[in-house]
Amino acid sequence: MLNPPIISTRGLSKTYLAGDVYVYALRGVDLEVERGEFVCLVGPSGSGKSTLFYILGGLMAPTSGSVTVSGKDLSQISDSERTELRRTTIGFVFQKYNLLPSLTALDNVELARDIAGIHGPLDKEFQDILRLIGISGRMNHKPSALSGGEQQRVAIARAIVNHPAILLADEPTGNLDTENSHVVMMVLKDLNERLGQTILVITHDQEVASYAHRMIHMRDGRIETAESRQRHGATPAGAPLF
How confident is the model over 144-195, as pLDDT tens digits? Predict the structure, then answer.
């Protein structure tokens, strides 16, 4: 028997009431993501990408339809079970960083480990990631002392520190230049290939989407097309990125 998708939606819809006007953010989205896939959702602003991100992460309820993540129907589990799923299974990279301003970058990362019940020093592999994405020397600074791009990279480090089975990333390169965008996407690609993490990236950037196995186009709350992609800059066998 084939393994079920790690993410699955059926007839997913989300409607907002803005004043006296209904806004249809999602309109019957059917989506499947296999375990270990690297998928990019691509579309213009207002296409429904970020709404889908929040629903898949159990942070927002749909108006109708079903969402199954890691074998759990999100509409059939309790708030505490959804919290546990986010704590143990899903890593988030938010478009607005969501770093705690009173904590250093290192404290923000270690807080994610504490919440997941993981203790002890950061392993060498993660230290290598910090160096690779250029923030190892900035970890003792608070967010107010970091540039937008540095805060973005701290948010990415926080999301991957616990090696979650699923990583959801909303515009993870939105505040990065071309070089740093490439570095970040290569880190995500390497984690996907070596550790089997399922990665779903939301982006409006076709170049960012070219790193994924599959690109899904969204517009007006619907999935328009899906296409497989040639892997971008594949890491040679036996040659890990870090």
Answer: 999 888 998 899 899 988 889 999 999 998 888 888 888 889 888 988 998 8
Give 20-66 pLDDT, tens digit per residue.
899 999 999 999 999 999 999 999 988 999 999 999 999 999 999 99
Q: Are 219 and 186 in contact (CB under 8 A)?
A: no
Place of tokens 């309820």: 61
User: Could you tell me the pTM of the whole model?
Assistant: 0.86
DSSP label of 145: G
Q: Which two tokens stand for residue 64?
A: 């109708």
195/199 Cα distance (integer angstroms):
11
Distance CA 62, CA 15 (A): 8
Identify the structural domains of the chain with CATH numbers, from first to last. 35-61+78-228 (3.40.50.300)
- Integer Cα distance of 120 and 10 in angstroms: 41
